[in-house]
Amino acid sequence: MEYYSRQISRLIQELSALPGIGAKTAQRLAFHILNMSEEAVQALSASIIEAKQNVCYCRECYTLTDEELCPICKDSARDHKVIMVVENTRDLAAYEKTGKYEGVYHVLHGAISPMLGIGPNDIRLKELMQRLAKEVDEVIIATNSSLEGETTAMYVSKLIKPTGIRVTRIASGVPVGGDLEYIDEVTLLRALEGRREL
Ligand code: ZN
């Protein structure tokens, strides 16, 4: 990349550090940014910095939000007695896009993976158990169908079982190892409707 000046190279380098951005895409984005108006670039960089500074975890469900309580937890029209457990905020968004789920969520921020050294204490499991002290009718486990997701589902269900709260798992049909966010809404809805008791 020596044929680019130092600042252009730096921009390309920063962009190519992002997930899914290869060297070619990074170059294309860098030149696109350099061609943008000064205001547009300011708006882009301000949105990155402000999001980073203000985004925190929802006090209730631990999704990423910029308020103490996220809009879903704040919504009294939703069924707060049904909690869907997902691995991350992107998975939550995937279910929200179906527009059919009326309960609330709990975001674990990861999944148990003995191989990667991620244990139950490294995800927001304790926080989930604390929520179950309130009145809860059902916990729907919607972790991915990857090895980690299944391990987490089993662990969570064993933990909840003694409380007597109904525990269900979304139906398979969600491709193995497939990130929930890449699955179409119809498949997600079918998985949700076909959930079974654990
Ligand atoms: Zn929330």
Bound molecules: zinc ion
State the low-pLDDT regions, or none: none
Strand residues, percent = 5-15%
Q: Strand count, sense and closure of the main sheet?
A: 5 strands, mixed
Describe this structure in words.
- This protein is of the alpha/beta class.
- The chain has a domain at 79-169: Dna Topoisomerase Vi A Subunit, Chain: A, domain 2.
- Helix content is 43%, strand content 14%.
- It has 8 helices and 7 strands.
- It has helices spanning 6-16, 23-35, 38-54, 71-74, 89-98, 125-131, 147-160, 185-193; strands spanning 56-57, 64-65, 79-86, 103-107, 138-141, 166-169, 196-197.
- The strands form 2 sheets. A 5-stranded mixed beta sheet has the order 4-3-5-6-7. It has a two-stranded antiparallel ribbon with strand order 1-2.
- Strand 5 (138-141), helix 7 (147-160) and strand 6 (166-169) form a beta-alpha-beta unit.
- Helix 1 packs across helix 2.
- The longest helix is centred in the N-terminal third of the chain and has 17 residues, at 38-54.
- It is elongated and about 65 Å long.
- It starts with 5 loop residues before the first helix and ends with a strand.
- Zinc ion (ZN) is lined by residues 58, 60-61, 63, 69-70, 72-73.
Task: Give the helix/strand layout.
Blueprint: H1 6-16, H2 23-35, H3 38-54, E1 56-57, E2 64-65, H4 71-74, E3 79-86, H5 89-98, E4 103-107, H6 125-131, E5 138-141, H7 147-160, E6 166-169, H8 185-193, E7 196-197
Parallel strand pairs: 3-4, 3-5, 5-6
Antiparallel strand pairs: 1-2, 6-7
Helix pairs in contact: 1-2, 5-8
This protein binds zinc ion.
